[in-house]
């Protein structure tokens, strides 16, 4: 029986790369933006249930929880063509809508205040799963929500789901030599989040924002900023799709998350993995 994985997306960065990931999964599995199977279903025996479940009306719904302390990115997702794909009960926006102000402590504190609502969503998704193997978290370690609230969630997931695996896709901040970050407290956010990443998840996939920006600038030097970010999100989604492909399609090896993690993380503190694959980007077209 295939295992199931619940995705958790924190903050602007986590929700943007998460949205790109779900769009890519829909394309790979022949799922239309409204969750129905398209006319040309790609593979009849793929394992959609790893990341999707079927609602009462038979359309596919992502096993995903979307969290942000300011509404802009989530509003853009729920107003996009994929608005019918997500379960709206699994979307959390802070009532104040002011965000965390790139402050780790603010995100952590608001995570504590919202823990009952957040874990009600996670426990509902867990109960809806037949064989839940673990959680996959998307976030940035440099901002406020992804770092602070993400850190709090990692601590509590370890307490509430001690036997489940946790894998994170963590975006590490841009670090150009000789240039300071626009966010003054970014080093503090990163260090405080790293302390939780060292302790709690089973595997951390490191996404180097510096390298991602370099790839985008090399392949789309004249592209506007929005297009560059779209290219970066697309690249990250391809990394995520490639690393989970053996879970989602029939095969003899690495058909479960533990089979992927165990050979790569031989010693628990050495859980930080770096990604790379050939032919990783396309020529940008205006």
CATH superfamily: Tubulin/FtsZ, GTPase domain
Calculate the terminal CA-CA distance, rounded to whole Å: 45 Å
Number of helical stretches of at least 4 residues:
9
CATH fold descriptor: Rossmann fold
Number of domains: 1
**Rg, Å, rounded:** 18 Å
Quick one: CATH class?
A: Alpha Beta
Broad structural category: alpha/beta
* Beta-strand segment tally: 9
Shape: globular
Largest sheet, if any?
Answer: 7 strands, parallel
Strand content: 15-25%
- Helix fraction, binned, reads 40-55%
| Named CATH architecture | 3-Layer(aba) Sandwich
Q: How do the strands of the widest beta sheet line up side by side?
A: 5-4-1-6-7-8-9
Nearest-integer average pLDDT:
88
Would you list the SSEs in sequence order as H and E?
EHEEEHEHHEHEHEHHHE
Keywords: Cytoplasm, Cytoskeleton, GTP-binding, Microtubule, Nucleotide-binding
Protein name: Tubulin gamma chain
Subcellular location: Cytoplasm, Cytoskeleton, Microtubule organizing center
GO molecular function, one term: GTP binding
Question: How do the strands and helices of this protein lay out in sequence?
Answer:
Layout: E1 4-10, H1 11-29, E2 52-54, E3 60-62, E4 64-68, H2 72-78, E5 91-93, H3 104-113, H4 115-127, E6 132-140, H5 145-160, E7 165-172, H6 186-199, E8 203-208, H7 209-219, H8 225-248, H9 257-264, E9 272-274
Parallel strand pairs: 1-4, 1-6, 4-5, 6-7, 7-8, 8-9
Antiparallel strand pairs: 2-3
Helix pairs in contact: 1-2, 1-8, 3-5, 5-6, 7-8
């Amino acid at each position: 029986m295939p295992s199931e994985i619940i995705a958790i997306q924190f903050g602007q960065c986590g929700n943007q790369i998460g949205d790109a990931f779900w769009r890519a999964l829909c394309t790979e599995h022949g799922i239309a933006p409204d969750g129905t199977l398209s006319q040309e279903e790609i593979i009849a025996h793929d394992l959609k249930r790893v990341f999707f479940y079927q609602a009462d009306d038979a359309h596919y719904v992502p096993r995903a929880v979307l969290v942000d302390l300011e509404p802009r990115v989530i509003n853009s997702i729920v107003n996009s063509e994929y608005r019918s794909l997500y379960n709206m009960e699994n979307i959390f926006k802070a009532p104040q809508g002011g965000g965390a102000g790139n402050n780790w402590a603010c995100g952590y504190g608001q995570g504590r205040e919202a823990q009952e609502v957040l874990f009600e969503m996670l426990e509902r998704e867990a109960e809806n799963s037949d064989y839940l193997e673990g959680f996959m978290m998307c976030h940035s370690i440099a901002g406020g929500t992804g770092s602070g609230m993400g850190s709090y969630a990692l601590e509590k997931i370890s307490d509430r789901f001690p036997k489940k695996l946790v894998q994170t896709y963590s975006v590490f901040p841009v670090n150009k030599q000789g240039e300071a970050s626009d966010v003054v407290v970014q080093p503090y956010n990163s260090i405080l989040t790293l302390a939780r990443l060292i302790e709690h998840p089973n595997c951390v996939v490191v996404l180097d924002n510096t390298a991602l920006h370099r790839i985008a600038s090399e392949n789309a030097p004249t592209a506007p900023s929005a297009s560059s970010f779209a290219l970066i999100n697309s690249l990250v989604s391809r990394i995520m799709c490639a690393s989970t492909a053996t879970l989602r399609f029939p095969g003899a090896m690495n058909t479960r998350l533990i089979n992927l993690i165990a050979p790569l993380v031989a010693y628990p503190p050495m859980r930080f993995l770096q990604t790379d694959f050939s032919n990783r980007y396309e020529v940008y077209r205006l």
